Structure formats: C-alpha cells, structure tokens
Amino acid sequence: MTTVYACGRMIDGVNSDVKENCCVTVADGKILAVTDRPPEQYDMLTDWSGYTVMPGLINCHTHVGILPTADNDLILRCPLTKRVVIILRHLIQLLASGVTTIRDLGCYDKVDLEIRSLVRSGRVIGPDMFAAGPMLTMTGGHAHTVGVEVDGVDECRKAVRQRLKDGVDLVKVMATGGVLTKGVEPGSAQLSIEEMKVICEEAHKAGRRVACHAQGNTGIRNALAAGVDTIEHGFYLDRESVDKMARQGIYYIPTFCAPYFMAAKGKELGLAQEFIDKVNASLDAHAASFSMALDSGVKIACGTDAGTPFNGHDRTAKELLLMHTHGMPADQAIAAATSVAAACIGVSDRGRIAPDLRADLIAVEGNPLETLGCLENGVKYVMKQGRVFSTAALKEAILS
Ligand SMILES: [Zn+2]
What we know:
Blueprint: E1 2-10, E2 19-27, E3 30-35, E4 44-55, E5 57-62, H1 80-96, E6 99-104, H2 111-120, E7 128-131, E8 136-137, E9 148-149, H3 152-166, E10 170-174, H4 193-205, E11 209-214, H5 217-226, E12 230-233, H6 239-248, E13 251-253, H7 257-265, H8 273-295, H9 316-325, H10 330-336, H11 339-345, E14 361-364, H12 374-377, E15 379-384, E16 387-390, H13 391-399
Parallel strand pairs: 1-4, 5-6, 6-7, 8-9, 10-11, 11-12, 12-13
Antiparallel strand pairs: 1-2, 2-3, 4-14, 14-15, 15-16
Helix pairs in contact: 1-13, 3-4, 4-5, 9-10
The structure holds zinc ion (ZN).
C-alpha cells in the first residue's frame, strides 16, 4: 500500500531550512519519494498540511530498564513481571514523545537484548533499540549494581566476548565514577587505559562501537587514549580532549537532562544529599565543556540518560531545549536528535527524510526550527517503519 502524506512543512534532519507544502510518499515501511505534488499513483492520501513533518527523534542514551526514581536500584527489587511492565511502559512513553530509535546504554541481565528483539520482530510496540546489555565497570565501580564487574585485561576481553555472544549491538564501558553510585566520585578515573583498550579492540573487531561513561578529566583522557567511540556526559572536558574528539570524529553526548532533573527536583523528591552535592559541583564545568565542544566542531548527539532520577523516558525534547539554552542553534539541536544521532549509532537508514530510508517520521504542531519547545507537547503523530501511531492514543494506553 502506497500512502502519500501531504505535509504543511518539512524539516529533513540535515538542512536548516523548512520546505513548505510537500508530499512524502511511503510504502512498505520506507520513504518512496519526497515531491512537491502527489505522485500520479497512490492508494491513500493523508492530510498533514497542519503539521511540520520531520524525522523521528533518536535518543542516543537511555536506560529503559531503569525507573527514574530517587533510588535507581528500586527496579532491581521489583518482581520480574513488574519490571517487564515498567519497561513496556517506558517504550510507549518514548514512542509517544516522538522517539523512533534509541541506543540503550546499560541494563541488568540481558533484559534489554530480549526486549530489543521483541520490538524488532514487531511483537512489542516501541522505538527500534540498539542495546548494550550490562555495562562493564571495575569492581565497586560506577553502576556496579547493574553492570558486570571486570578487573584486568583478561577479564575485560572475556566480558566483551561474552556480550558479543549474547548479541549486544554495542558495548558500554565506565571510565570514571559517577553521581549515582554511593561513595564513588564522578571525577575519579576507574577502568585503566589498558583495560579499555582491550574492550575497544574486541568490540571493534566484531564491528561494534564502544560508548563510554566519562565524567572526570583523567578518565576522559584514558577513554580517548583507549579508542572509545562516544563520550557520555563529559563533565570535565579540556582543550586537548575536545580537539582530539573533533579531529577523530568521536561523538559527545552531554546528557544535560540527567544533572538538570537531579538539581531541579532532587531536594523535593528525596534524592540522597551526596548525589545532589555531586551534581551541583559539576554543573558549571559541564556547561563550559559543552560550549568548548560546540565551538570546536565536535559532533554532538542527543541523549537524555532517561532512567536517572526524575528523568523520565518522555523527555527527549527537553534535552534539545537544554542544548539550545547552552548555545546550540535550533537546527543543530534537531540534527543532534536525527541525522547526527543516526551517524553516532552507525546507521545510515534513518535520521533524515529521503528516498529509500526507513519511514520513521513525526508530525508536529508548530515549527520546531522557530520554537524548539513545540517538540515537548506538539508531536501529534509518530510513524515507525510506515506504521502511524496517534501520540494521544499512546499516552492514553499508558494511563489505562
Ligand atoms: Zn547512563
């Protein structure tokens, strides 16, 4: 079946201009053509003349298996059936907020891998997932309650090979401490260069990328020396690291939503004082790191770190707004969640509106290039591989 979507405006995810009144023709889950007028033959025409149509959003840093509550380990104490229900709810929240692809960066057991496969086979509704399985961290290191503890190059090598055997799409590694692990400093270096080198070597041999949680400067330097592909958070970047990232095309995912929600809601909603203090201590450095990376032409992709306290799975647009507030132009913020995000994940079949790509689109009220905020509540329809969902109906499904 061939369907023509008559769009009032279109943002293609790459160019910074808006195309007025055009038609996107979709068949078999793919974009067939983008034209000024409807083609001569089609089966159905849908009137989206009141909307701006753009590529579905891509969130490069989520944790669908984690509840965004003050206690991030709460989910680990939930019975299995409840955990599954929570994950399915998170997937619907993501889709309802216009997200058609996620890169999920760390989950207990192999739950994310199983959910990914169920989504991909069409048996579960949600964004297409690229999943890392449990994150690799040193013994007692950041996120050790959820991840796998590894020490020394041999254990690191074995752990990556095991993840590959389990079917991960990428590997997640912890180069530094983090805010949400008790007694662990975000600034402290954790896995060594040698350990992370082996992790990168094994992952790259198998064609998988390595996403690296790196907050403190020494750990960021270690991660870059080891050869990781993306720096997550990057609270304390320096000139040398930024230049290296720009030169080598290493992506930066600042995840502003994570510290933002902890700082804004932590006190009121009972976040441990230790975590609030660690977040507040990093805010200025984080903003300065982002500005330096932005000015230096580092590729910056959108990721919210959904699942961290009070940072729900429906806040992808908020990340765009926060990047915008910190100086990123609206068109670049949109690209960070579309074409740049697709390149960050390493997929070329999405993130833009062009023939032969996946038909992953959203229809938004308003013009996000003029008012980025309309992405927060204005997404009315989301199309994933040609299948259209009303966001109102999805939100209703979450409530019922
Ligand atoms: Zn994370």
